[in-house]
Amino acid sequence: MNKDILAITERIIARSKNTRRAYLDKIEQAKSETVHRASLSCGNLAHGFAACGKEDKQTLRGINHSDIAIVSAYNDMLSAHQPYETYPPIIKVAIKETGGVAQFAGGVPAMCDGVTQGQPGMDLSLMSRDVIAMSTAVALSHNMFDGALMLGICDKIVPGLLIASMTFGHLPTVFIPAGPMPSGIPNKEKARVRQQFAKGEIGKDKLLEAESASYHSAGTCTFFGTANSNQLVVEVMGLHLPGASFVAPNTELREELTKAASRQVTRLTQQNGNYMPIGKMIDERSVVNAIVALLATGGSTNLTMHIIAFARAAGIIINFQDFHDLSEVVPLITRIYPNGHADINHFQQAGGMALLFKELLGNGLLHEDVETICGKGLSRYTQQPVLENGELKWVDGPEVSGDDQVIASVANPFKVDGGLKVLEGNLGVSVLKTSAMREGSFVIEAPAVVFEDQHDLEAAFKAGELEKDFIAVVRFQGPKARGMPELHKLTPPLGVLQDKGFKVALVTDGRMSGASGKVPAAIHLCPEALDGGLIAKIRDGDMLRIDGETGELTLKVSDEELAQRDNAVFNVNGHHQGMGREIFGFMRRNLSSADTGACSLFDEDEVNVRGGVA
């Protein structure tokens, strides 16, 4: 095992000592020696199975067989979640064959960042994660259930389901994916068309034609954004069946994996004698594994916040420095768009998760001796699922990459580090994704051009006002100001300027898309402008330095000059009204900083999140 990863893991264990102990005590008190519904009164139980068929009612009257909750993010507007429409009947039959019952416990909202990019609804995106966690808690609050199946894929859905799953950590829990859509037009071509549109060379009809050829059917979007990063992280934590993450929807193999996952959760229940609740299964080593895999593949920067948040729900305290230090020792061994031209289907064809596990485990970069839904040890995950004569089996995965331009080796990586830097300086702390950046773009020192809305930058670009070296400062985008919307609409214009030879970069207290990376972007800046962060004092023309090599983020203005300046005032200007934003004020005001997960669900008076002191 890599000694640096071991040391970082031990540091996290020590930091989390008090919070983790309190968490494990909590889930120990919540477990039941028999089925959970045994604690319900006759009236409670009658309500709980009133709509069941006669056979299921008879099963639920007894105390020998499990009742499994299905929590689903199905809706048919999201391509990734549309396949879940058919899952509940399949799950119910599979679990009935084990002698148990499955009940659809609840649905959770699932919004699409791809639909809301640059729109008012994007201001709700991050907060929807906490709503999903609370919705899942409501679904599981009836105390009918002995285990849970989580059906979710995309950006905030899986993190929300994970927060809730850790909160109900006494329940065995399995996550069931649905798989990616088939590959559409090449990602390089899609990016080219977007930049053509940004330059005014083509109209909306051509842009829509290209976008529709990329996002064209049921399944997850194929680039390596937050959705596919979620799937990778969940599998590396042992919450998927081996090799399940990137099997295409609406295939026989996909359906058999769904049935197998349904049966697997019943094997982990108290009634089966092999009790393994998710809160005990996932520990500090599991979370470190998740971060290592994210870094090794150049995954979404959004997971920096999400991992911090769901780990916190399990009493494990993670911070930005952990990501930075792990990135220093974990090499980048995949090239998936935006870190390359391949998509997630090409990754699967090159060897997929089985090969990734083999490389990381074989080089001591993952903790192997962790619990998973398949038992102890990650070595099982170097296998991949296949159908032989209609029967689901697992076989050894490939020994070498089928395409070394998509999956490299630890011995010969694409980059010697994981491509994520934590920047610090007088502006605060932020995250910089370097895995997709061009050589020579890691350091930039240039005058600031200040914006308080991404659409103002687009307008300045179209007016020809940005044909120069500059660092765009887009402030008042943080959790408390606007709910931390993604600013992915900035990628095409800034990319165009970069291609023209200008040195451009971004500093923001907001987020970029999980598919960002080409343009240097110091994101998730803490403290945010609305919390008195120094970003609120930046003026046009101030010199800024972003150094992706030394980790420096500096506003080069004297302390004396800054002391004379007032903070800019946030102009709400309708940002808290319309598209439902007016009813999220209570949550927005209570969101923590990005480096503590940008979460509204944890009581800061109860636990010091940064220090882990109870």
UniProtKB/TrEMBL annotation:
<comment type="function">
    <text>Catalyzes the dehydration of 6-phospho-D-gluconate to 2-dehydro-3-deoxy-6-phospho-D-gluconate.</text>
</comment>
<comment type="pathway">
    <text>Carbohydrate metabolism; Entner-Doudoroff pathway.</text>
</comment>
<dbReference type="GO" id="GO:0051539">
    <property type="term" value="F:4 iron, 4 sulfur cluster binding"/>
</dbReference>
<keyword id="KW-0119">Carbohydrate metabolism</keyword>
<keyword id="KW-0408">Iron</keyword>
<feature type="domain" description="Dihydroxy-acid/6-phosphogluconate dehydratase N-terminal">
    <location>
        <begin position="68"/>
        <end position="379"/>
    </location>
</feature>
<dbReference type="InterPro" id="IPR020558">
    <property type="entry name" value="DiOHA_6PGluconate_deHydtase_CS"/>
</dbReference>
<dbReference type="GO" id="GO:0019521">
    <property type="term" value="P:D-gluconate metabolic process"/>
</dbReference>
<dbReference type="InterPro" id="IPR042096">
    <property type="entry name" value="Dihydro-acid_dehy_C"/>
</dbReference>
<dbReference type="InterPro" id="IPR004786">
    <property type="entry name" value="6-phosphgluc_deHydtase"/>
</dbReference>
<dbReference type="InterPro" id="IPR037237">
    <property type="entry name" value="IlvD/EDD_N"/>
</dbReference>
<feature type="binding site">
    <location>
        <position position="154"/>
    </location>
    <ligand>
        <name>[4Fe-4S] cluster</name>
    </ligand>
</feature>
<keyword id="KW-0456">Lyase</keyword>
<dbReference type="GO" id="GO:0046872">
    <property type="term" value="F:metal ion binding"/>
</dbReference>
<keyword id="KW-0411">Iron-sulfur</keyword>
<keyword id="KW-0479">Metal-binding</keyword>
<protein>
    <recommendedName>
        <fullName>Phosphogluconate dehydratase</fullName>
        <ecNumber>4.2.1.12</ecNumber>
    </recommendedName>
</protein>
<dbReference type="GO" id="GO:0004456">
    <property type="term" value="F:phosphogluconate dehydratase activity"/>
</dbReference>
<comment type="similarity">
    <text>Belongs to the IlvD/Edd family.</text>
</comment>
<dbReference type="GO" id="GO:0005829">
    <property type="term" value="C:cytosol"/>
</dbReference>
<dbReference type="GO" id="GO:0009255">
    <property type="term" value="P:Entner-Doudoroff pathway through 6-phosphogluconate"/>
</dbReference>
<dbReference type="Pfam" id="PF00920">
    <property type="entry name" value="ILVD_EDD_N"/>
</dbReference>
<feature type="domain" description="Dihydroxy-acid/6-phosphogluconate dehydratase C-terminal">
    <location>
        <begin position="405"/>
        <end position="598"/>
    </location>
</feature>
<keyword id="KW-0311">Gluconate utilization</keyword>
<keyword id="KW-0460">Magnesium</keyword>
<dbReference type="InterPro" id="IPR000581">
    <property type="entry name" value="ILV_EDD_N"/>
</dbReference>
<keyword id="KW-0004">4Fe-4S</keyword>
<dbReference type="InterPro" id="IPR056740">
    <property type="entry name" value="ILV_EDD_C"/>
</dbReference>
<dbReference type="Pfam" id="PF24877">
    <property type="entry name" value="ILV_EDD_C"/>
</dbReference>
<feature type="binding site">
    <location>
        <position position="221"/>
    </location>
    <ligand>
        <name>[4Fe-4S] cluster</name>
    </ligand>
</feature>
